[in-house]
Structure to design on (1620 residues):
């Protein structure tokens, strides 16, 4: 902390909400720092202009408000989906993947504005502090980082509210007490954690869900969609070429309307404890299924199996906050190379929570009647070859069995 | 083939169907071999007594008909599910896991009956020949293996039918022509492949499905079940302790009735080509979700992540036929050790194809309010620790960034 | 620190040297704690009785002095060598593997003596603090751990010396200033680090080497030895069955006398920086070569390659201090299973730093003329099989090449 | 074989020796094929002009004789050494890495000359047939491949000699009987296998060594060399910038003269059996040590550890013949990315078989006094941080220990 005492100017990741408004004021009053705010539209669904007004009200002169949705989807989400990344078998990394982008802009803005520090609103028990800070340090080794939730002396929600009142920060009625659960959201997902969700034996109450209807509420007839891929990324939906964020937003709509992408899990945090969360990833859930389907006909077995073996490590790196690390870049280079011919169309049926592949085709298919026919004719597949194939694969096992008899 | 000319007595994996009846007769007439039949009840859903009668009619004196369902589930299926094994992201290995058990019994029966060979009805283009034969060689390095589909001189279905007629093998009407698709089934799953399924762009016709109703046909209200685990295996369902096969059969019923476990995929065969299949794994799909859920609260992160990294390799070994290999045994030893405290209950909601976790609890939970409270009180989690944790994790990235500036 | 203020009784890993004597006194005077000393003979080559006298002089009533060499070699070193564990391609983990044993005894002694804390003399920049503490916490989650080098207020060597003088702790002449390098030693290795070794472009001065002569000084004629293994561990040397520590001591002698096992490296510490060290592992270097040689004839390829793929992770776990972790135990279970038939003899030539395998034989060999002959006769290896083997392995590559033309 | 009957024109990998001369004649007489010869200088140490004369004598009109040493070192050997590739802990893949280059040229020449087939002289029990053929198929899926050792009807050496005499192929005296061992050589290594080396308990006779003197014969004083790297590859030796093959040839000279690079091993072949070989890799052994040393100061830990984990798979791919596979390319992409800043100098001492690193330095070093000092000053390393780092790393282990008490 002591090094932080000398901070002069700090770029704050500012949502406009109560908590980051308190942080803003605390940075001004307790740290005597000039504050620059950065508010990003990551597709979380909030209006951004109120954040500008609040910042102005608190005397901020340098206010950055940016729509980074296209960058988020094309430079972070899509590369991650090329890897079919899933953490602990189920989690699509919706929160994890947004943090490096925010840190990248915080660092860039710090350089533009001559700030010597950045600040974020993540708590000291979670993963997000790690993700923000590792990303920031990897991009600027000399940056100072303020994490008020770890650094300030408030002991309770009451202390915070008193501080807010003292500085006339507006307090929405429902924010006076502790929230029944906390939410993080961006275009890829929303997560809900805490309080009413703390007992993993209790089913989450319906009101925690933010952006999907339940499978039960979804229509009784299936919706069919068609996604087209190029180099491993979706480029068109139902025949219409779309920008990454536009396409992803439509996938979200399809998912939401069909009850797709709800997940209730207990996960292992990088900081060492288990936590329970409820996640909604409507578009991502569709995309993962579609991507695996287009890979299934265009990706060679060797490449596919190597990808599957590398994936858990890759997902763990993103979860733990190592997006800007040499090892993530190395894995990305391998993954991206594999995607060169991952192109074509996937047809899907969405029905009450299900994402069902009903067809896939590609000019680059490795599965093809024509090829099969060609191979038979040319002797590419002689069933007699299988005997030799098996014999040599068995040789070491037979040697072993002979010894062990 | 020449070595096979001298075969005297052969144990045939005999289903009682037309194809293996032709093989039986071919072994008798063309190979001049005495035949022992082995017919296993793996839960495929066929009557076994007809197989006995047909074998007797063809003059077989040593007829083995066995119900191996409990062994199948407890010694093959459950160990595999401890690993959360999934091949290429989606396939639950339903066919693959049954083959080693059949080979094991074929080899044991060969030893009991003094047979010098075994025979199976798998074709020369598929994976099953590999799985049967690698397993057999690993258990008896000197066994001779006859794979008639690779070895005989029949060129077409017509040739086969003529041979059957010549030897008065009864031919069901619907077997005269080629089947519109071929089926393999056991308690874990059924698979459908070939012909009408060959174009991966075409949705599978409804009639290929064998053991599940569609999500659309499933009830409009969810069914709730509760599975109890001990040492990584399910031991009770809705509070009732059940034998492995009995429990699994009930899971299959629940899955079937709720449209759970259908899968349409293109996979990479070990013999080198891609194939398209439609699989139904109702109980297995439920079990996989439940097992991951109970692991989520009872398995340490280090163990869980190691398991996730080892899984693709483990699944590939089973898919490729290496169940009886040192490397599968090594991985199993690691996996089994991890399961010692994987116990407790999972509550699930089954609804029109969805398997939704709604609760998990365990006496061995690593997630617990009490623990959390203990840690706070005892200083087990000091938010200040996070700062040091991040700093040291960031150190190498900062050093790198300093260099690369 | 504050939680540590209440420590009542602490078990200190005590070498008897100046630094841990200062720590002992600091614990008594500044922490007001009763101190229990634990001094282990790990084969580091120091007399232990002086440690007892010093402890007695400082008023210690509970003094544990133990020869743990057999336990160290049989329960820590040998299991690790079964894995052929090497960190970053070169380091045999000599320091890393001793720490968990020390922590285990510290925790056991704490329980025997009713101590609520343990203390160690590792600094705050190194790996050993992590290894000591992770091991201790894994064995007793409630233990308090005092790491004086991190916790006290001394700023310099001068401060330490003053404190020692104040409490009449004897100060060897050569310990008044900072040492030209620091040493850690146990039966497996000695390491030298710091000061004169800090520039990685400078060759280490000859005087840093503790327990080997240089290759140049070694005899001009080779020494031949023969090591016998059982279940992956060495059990006899030159025909003489020996206890683990006795055998290992002899290997150390052979290595030392032949200039074997010196290593000058730059390694990556778990705490995030690179450090340069000079290590000497005479017996371990011989053992690693011999173990790989006996495995080369007794271990199946599948097991051997799986071991090679798991090894870097296994070595990293030990290096980072996770000996007592579920994932290390899982890997150990896999590795140990592979060693069941790793038995037989290896003949080696030691010559001026070289360890040269000149022969290996085993009753469990998988390489054998007899087997080869058997296989030829029985048609186990038909060269024609190779054609089929290659054809099917090539199939996917040909399909890919056809597509990409 | 039957498909091969129609071969019209075949490119033969032709050494000019007796065996490939017999193959050449056999292709002409028994296969009625026009033959194109390809003789490559891979640094094996043979004169190539005699091969031209023999080919001309046998009526060959299209004779390709090429010096491919630079391509071999820069496009195959160096990329492989970037990975620190070692097969089964010891083998530097000297034979394996040469095969894909030969196949590549065979395929290119086939396309240039309108040949429909290629032929090689590898036997049916070895790995090289696999490597040649997988590479060829990956580059031209329609190529026909003739492997005379698998395909012809000769039963014994006598048959071959008779055939040679019938067609007046000159037979060197020492080639009438079977050789006491067989040799493969290229610039990276020479290998010796078979006959006198078949018993792995017997030390190899001195006369099998081709290109190194023994450590005993090497000079009594050490030789010091300095290798400079750029992007992971050596570019200069003792201050002199050299082409890849020239530099490598000098490393070979240094290795040979100092008894460096001998290896006697038992390895696992891809075709299923164990074999014993004696390999000499003088320059490669030096290069591996030097490359690891320059990486030790320039490669980040995350990148280094990922490389170590991927290496066994990468080495296995090359050993098994999958150089031209998507998965090898993916791994190469990851590895190459890691090498961008692997530059600087390594100083080595060569002494009687030892390769001893005595210094490493780099403008891109991640180890540096200056950095260390900078970090201390800026608070980059606060020893207090270590406490938090350990606490959070320990948290899951403590939770586990609490549960398991």
């Amino acid at each position: 902390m002591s090094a932080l005492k000398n901070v002069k100017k700090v770029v704050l990741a500012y949502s406009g909400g109560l908590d980051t408004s308190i942080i803003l004021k605390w940075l001004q009053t307790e740290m005597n720092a000039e504050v620059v705010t950065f508010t990003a539209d990551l597709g979380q669904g909030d209006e951004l202009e109120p954040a500008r007004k609040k910042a102005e009200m608190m005397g901020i002169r340098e206010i950055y408000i940016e729509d980074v949705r296209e960058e988020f989807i094309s430079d972070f989400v899509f590369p991650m989906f090329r890897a079919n990344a899933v953490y602990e078998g189920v989690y699509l990394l919706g929160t994890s993947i947004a943090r490096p982008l925010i840190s990248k802009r915080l660092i860039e803005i710090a350089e533009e504005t001559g700030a010597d520090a950045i600040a974020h609103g993540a708590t000291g028990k979670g993963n997000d502090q790690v993700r923000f800070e590792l990303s920031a340090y990897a991009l600027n080794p000399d940056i100072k980082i303020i994490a008020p939730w770890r650094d300030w002396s408030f002991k309770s929600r009451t202390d915070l509210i008193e501080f807010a009142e003292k500085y006339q920060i507006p307090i929405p009625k429902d924010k006076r007490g502790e929230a029944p659960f906390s939410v993080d959201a961006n275009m890829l997902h929303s997560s809900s954690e805490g309080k009413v969700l703390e007992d993993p034996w209790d089913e989450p109450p319906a009101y925690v869900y933010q952006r999907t209807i339940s499978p039960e509420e979804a229509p009784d007839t299936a919706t069919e969609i068609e996604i087209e891929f190029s180099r491993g990324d979706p480029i068109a939906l139902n025949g219409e070429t779309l920008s990454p964020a536009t396409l992803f937003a439509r996938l979200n709509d399809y998912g939401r309307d069909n009850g797709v992408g709800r997940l209730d899990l207990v996960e292992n945090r990088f900081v060492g404890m288990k936590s329970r969360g409820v996640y909604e990833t409507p578009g991502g859930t569709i995309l993962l299924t579609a991507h695996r389907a287009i890979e299934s006909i265009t990706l060679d077995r060797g490449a596919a199996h190597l990808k599957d073996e590398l994936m858990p490590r890759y997902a763990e790196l993103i979860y733990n906050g190592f997006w800007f690390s040499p090892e993530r870049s190395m894995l990305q280079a391998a993954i991206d190379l594999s995607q060169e011919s991952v192109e074509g169309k996937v047809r899907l049926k969405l029905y009450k929570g299900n994402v069902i592949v009903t067809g896939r085709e590609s000019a680059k298919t490795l599965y093809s009647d024509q090829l099969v026919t060609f191979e038979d004719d040319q002797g590419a597949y002689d069933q007699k070859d299988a005997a030799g194939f098996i014999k040599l694969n068995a040789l070491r096992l037979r040697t072993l069995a002979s010894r062990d008899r």
Q: What stands out?
A: The first helix of chain A runs from residue 18 to 29. The domain at 2-69+97-178 of chain A is CATH 3.40.50.620 (Rossmann fold). Chain A has two domains: 2-69+97-178, 183-299+341-361.
